DNA sequence: GTGTTTGCAAACTTTTTGCAAACAC
DNA sequence: GTGTTTGCAAAAAGTTTGCAAACAC
């Protein structure tokens, strides 16, 4: 059975902070944003709630070089990340359920989903490289 | 200009340790394996060389929940990871270059490659769940 | 000989955790 | 009232770094 969850002020603030951003923030960035609304909330509470909200399916996280990023979009979708500055954005890519079954059949894993990350250089970092 | 690289005993040991494993080891596991051959090598040296070898293209790393894993296979390919124990394995999935161009066109990023990770439950963890 | 690399240890970053008080239901 | 959640602070985990000695070329 799932653990019972209570609706606390702090949990709502963390969820709101993730929803307010479209740029896939880090835990530290969420902590910073939440502190702007509540000077007393602690880092531990932010981390605990990010993990609980992810478990509950209210938010998701993206694993990229440089750490974990949180995502308000909970449907399956791809991302692109910058190899220089680490920025993360949504990327268009049709989600193909069929490949999950194929991967399951060939690996023996009970596959639930998949995630694709594109690696490249973001527009801002491209401009900086040209200046070099 | 790329930094000049010297062929040290320690660097070779780290590379050999990655090549010797097919299970996508963590940095700590590589450190442990290398220590079996050289009691004096330090953690710092292992981390430095893993990063240098990855930069040089001799090995790759996979970013999954739970941390970074190293991979002796340097060609593009997919992975499957266990949501319970964190194990990582190669997964069969045709690598499609065309999607990189599409992602680049729609995001403005200069996309170099992509990586797909399947999430699921590995055979061993499936068996443990049945016992519950 | 020159410049890179190593071992060591300390520092840093990020995340988790124990506990008593505060809070949601 | 009962059991969850919070803030705090410490600890844990993972990785990086400064430096003098050692080493590769």
Radius of gyration of chain A: 17 Å
- Count of spatially separate domains of chain A: 2
- What is the strand content of chain A? 15-25%
Q: Supply the CATH architecture of the largest domain in chain A.
A: Orthogonal Bundle
Largest sheet of chain A: 3 strands, mixed
Largest interface, with counts of residues having CB < 8 Å to the other chain, equals: A-B, 37 and 37 residues
Order of strands, widest sheet of chain A: 4-3-5
Q: Output the CATH homologous superfamily of the largest domain in chain A.
A: Winged helix-like DNA-binding domain superfamily/Winged helix DNA-binding domain
Shape of chain A: flat
What does this structure look like?
2 copies of one chain form a homodimer. With 132 residues, the first copy, chain A, is an alpha+beta fold. The first copy, chain A, has 2 domains: 1-74, Arc Repressor Mutant, subunit A (Orthogonal Bundle); 76-132, Ferric-uptake regulator, C-terminal dimerisarion domain (Dna Ligase, domain 1), CATH 3.30.1490.190. The first copy, chain A, contains 5 helices and 5 strands. In chain A, a hairpin with a 2-residue loop joins strand 1 and strand 2 (67-71). In chain A, helix 1 (9-19) crosses helix 2. The mean pLDDT of chain A is 93. At the A-B interface, strand 1, strand 3, helix 4 and strand 5 of A face strand 1, strand 3, helix 4 and strand 5 of B. The first copy, chain A, binds a DNA duplex (25 and 25 nucleotides) through helix 1 and helix 3.
């Amino acid at each position: 059975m799932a653990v019972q969850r209570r609706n606390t002020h702090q949990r709502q603030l963390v969820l709101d902070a993730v929803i307010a951003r479209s740029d896939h923030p880090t835990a530290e960035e969420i902590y910073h944003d939440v502190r702007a609304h509540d000077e007393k909330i602690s880092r531990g509470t932010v981390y605990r709630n990010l993990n609980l909200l992810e478990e509950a399916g209210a938010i998701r996280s993206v694993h990229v070089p440089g750490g974990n990023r949180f995502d308000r979009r909970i449907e399956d979708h791809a991302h692109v990340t910058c190899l220089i500055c680490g920025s993360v954005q949504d990327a268009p890519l049709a989600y193909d359920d069929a490949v999950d079954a194929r991967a399951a059949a060939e690996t023996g894993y009970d596959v639930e989903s998949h995630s694709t990350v594109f690696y490249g250089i973001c527009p801002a970092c491209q401009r900086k490289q040209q200046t070099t």
